[in-house]
Amino acid sequence: LVRNGIVYTEVFLSPTTFIRNGLDFNEIVKVIVKQIREIKKKTGIEIKLLIDISRTFGVENALNNVEGAVILREQYKEIIGIGLGGDEVKGPSAMFKRPFELAIKEGFNVVAHAGEAVGPESVWDALNVLNVSRIGHGISSMKDEALMKYLSEKDIPLEICLTSNIITRHFVSKIEDHPIKLFFARGVPVVLNTDDPAFFKVDLIDEYWNLYSKLDFDLNSIKKIIENSFRYSFMSEKMKDKLIKSVNDACNINFTS
């Protein structure tokens, strides 16, 4: 986070495998939040948690994770939302309607990975069944003009992870062919992410360089994507305005194409 100049981040915490291996959900969160607070004290970086209710482990596990998050959030304000990750093929969005209804009822922000390994119908389901406000990946949306138009009109962002999508090779095999350029041209809001920087061995700065050097994004477009990362976050509007202003102040020049 420090190396990449990140001041605020929302990260997935996926507790299920650890719980199945005998660890306690409360202890997992307690240890992680302790580290988060130490990082904030030392660096000022704000870290928030989205609790993952993985597609891989089924509905009951998902409900357990939401219920656990409800219990813990009063003690740990760092928990701000629920996210759906895991095996998109084996765990379609429709299976997880109940956990998401509970999460929304409890006031959580909700997001879902969709359209990473399955076609645009997966993105539609995440939007229509789960009522999410952000889509992780969503790259199969490139196959559906109506979906891209919907995302643009409803102002629903795609969390794009260039290197991850190339390594998993579901819809694209080289960065130069990544549909982020298409999404941007169609007015679909996009933000740039690393997915899992340790696993994919990529920094966020690397991904911004890929935009510039391999996808021909000009500096104005890159600046807009940086602003999007704040605009579509779950931080307060006051904090968004402050950080977007800091982007403009840092640039302090008129970029040209």
What does this structure look like?
By secondary structure, this protein is α/β, with parallel strands linked by helices. It is built from twelve helices and seven strands. It has a seven-stranded parallel beta sheet. Helix 3 runs parallel beside helix 4 (97-105) and helix 11 packs antiparallel against helix 12 (237-251). The radius of gyration is 18 Å and the shape is globular. The mean pLDDT is 95.
Features of the shown structure:
14% strand; 257 residues; seven-stranded parallel beta sheet; alpha/beta; 7 strands
Secondary structure category:
alpha/beta
Number of helices: 12
Choose one word for the global shape: globular
Number of strands: 7
Order of helices and strands: EHHEHEHEHEHEHHEHHHH
Radius of gyration: 18 Å
Give the spatial strand order of the biggest sheet: 1-2-3-4-5-6-7
Q: What is the straight-line distance between the termini?
A: 29 Å
Sheet-strand content, in percent, reads 5-15%
Q: Fraction of residues in helices?
A: 40-55%
Q: Sketch the major β-sheet.
A: 7 strands, parallel
Helices, strands, pairings?
Elements: E1 8-13, H1 16-20, H2 25-43, E2 46-52, H3 58-72, E3 79-84, H4 97-105, E4 109-114, H5 120-128, E5 134-137, H6 145-154, E6 158-160, H7 162-168, H8 180-185, E7 190-192, H9 197-200, H10 204-214, H11 219-231, H12 237-251
Parallel strand pairs: 1-2, 2-3, 3-4, 4-5, 5-6, 6-7
Helix pairs in contact: 3-4, 11-12
